[in-house]
Each structure stands twice: as structure tokens, then as C-alpha cells.
Specification:
Elements: H1 3-28, H2 31-47, H3 58-77, H4 93-105, H5 109-120, H6 125-132, H7 136-154, H8 156-159
Length: 160
């Protein structure tokens, strides 16, 4: 690979490494798995640089690779989270955020991923549809259903 392409990869890595790592943590709920997945993502980005055609933004393309890598890890490792869904009586804002985050992480993957991408990563529905290879109405349905599930688990107080 030429020196110019290596320098481009270095700048891509520096720009997106923290973003990818945090996205992996949101998906995998495990720091060690997130580190492994982050490494795998950048290996794939390096190997598949030539396949990037520019139809979507670089961030969208790398996020798609990241999500696919996370899905593969979840399939391989069958990560399960045993979260306590009971709510304490007196909660601080930090505790509320933690409880909501845990509830989001306990959602089935198809709903969790759209919530993460839409609310935490602030992608548009169109971008999410590109990332996970589906249509916008499907994304709208998944977000609506995720909200319903969260409302069931958390009650009306924390879902607003």
C-alpha cells in the first residue's frame, strides 16, 4: 500500500477510533469485547478501503462495518445481560440515566441498534436505513416499538 493511503488510514483511525469504541460498548456492553471489535473494524476498514465508493459518508460506511462486526461478535459470544429492572424510590439524574441506559441495552438487538444510532449517535432515519440495510418505514417502526418497550419497562416517568 502506498505511503499516501497509509497516511489516509492513519487519519481515519485517529478521527474515528473513539467513536467506534464507544459505539461498540453501546452494542456489546463489554469493554474487552468492544476493544476486540474496534480492532476488527479498523482491520476491515484497512482491507476494504478500495470498496468504499462514496455513496454514503465515510462515517456511515465505517459505522456499518462497526455494527456488522458487533452483530458478529454477539452471535459468536451470545452475550446476555441480566439487568435488574426494578426502579429505586429516590433517584438522582445520574441514576435515572443509568437506569434508562440499562433498559436500552436490554432491548432486543433490532430495537437497541436503532435507538443507539438515532438517539445516542444522532443519525437520521435515512442514514440508519443505509447502515442496517433496510427501508425507512422499518426504522420508524423499530423506533416506535423500542419506545413502547422502554415505556413498559420504565413507566411513563422515565420515558419522557
Amino acid at each position: 500500500m502506498s505511503r499516501e493511503k497509509l497516511m489516509d488510514f492513519d487519519s481515519i483511525y485517529l478521527e474515528y477510533k473513539d467513536y467506534i469504541y464507544r459505539t461498540c460498548i453501546l452494542y456489546l456492553k463489554d469493554h474487552h469485547l468492544a476493544e476486540d471489535c474496534t480492532q476488527d473494524v479498523f482491520i476491515k476498514v484497512y482491507k476494504k478501503q478500495k470498496s468504499y465508493k462514496g455513496k454514503s459518508s465515510l462515517k456511515t460506511w465505517i459505522t456499518r462495518i462497526c455494527i456488522n462486526c458487533c452483530r458478529d461478535m454477539l452471535r459468536k459470544r451470545k452475550v446476555e445481560d441480566n439487568l435488574d429492572e426494578s426502579l429505586p424510590e429516590d433517584e438522582s439524574d445520574h441514576t435515572k440515566k443509568l437506569i434508562v441506559s440499562e433498559a436500552v441495552m436490554s432491548l432486543p438487538l433490532q430495537f437497541r441498534e436503532v435507538v443507539i444510532l438515532y438517539y445516542y449517535r444522532e443519525f437520521t432515519m435515512k442514514e440508519i436505513a443505509e447502515i442496517i440495510h433496510t427501508k425507512i418505514p422499518n426504522i420508524e417502526y423499530r423506533i416506535r416499538r423500542a419506545k413502547e418497550l422502554l415505556k413498559e419497562r420504565l413507566g411513563d416517568d422515565l420515558c419522557e
